[in-house]
Amino acid sequence: MITAKDIMTREVITLTPETDIAKAAKILLDNGINGAPVVDDTGRVLGILCQSDLVVQQKRVPVPTIFTLLDGFVSLTSSKQIEKQVRKIAALTVAEAMTADPISIAPETELETIASLMVDKRFHTLPVIDKGRLVGIVGKEDVLRTLLYSPAGH
Fold this sequence. Notes:
Blueprint: H1 4-7, H2 21-30, E1 35-39, E2 45-50, H3 51-55, E3 66-69, E4 72-75, H4 79-89, H5 94-97, E5 99-100, H6 111-120, E6 125-130, E7 133-139, H7 140-149
Antiparallel strand pairs: 1-2, 2-5, 3-4, 6-7
């Protein structure tokens, strides 16, 4: 059975919460990676920054959808959602744009579970955590590479 420790990248490119957004985007692009874990000084994973988090910055501020029902105003989006989107759009640092408390996997997590997370939850980058420490990362490419070496791939 193939597990995360068999396919993970062990030399992980990480970001800090204070990293400038433009610098973070350059790191992702220069290294050809979809995302990178955001770690504190002790190496604890605080979040993950993915290309999709950066693409949000190109979006315009949403105007709340409001309609009138029996002469009352009804908002179709919550103010918390709008506030969160505005913060991401205006982010200057990784801490403001990252997804906090990302879903992570253990070294023993099986390939089938990893693939399910990526497909069902649309996660493309999963930090591998062992005893609270970042030990690797699994991306879509790592999963796809297993196809090349599986009996079905020959």
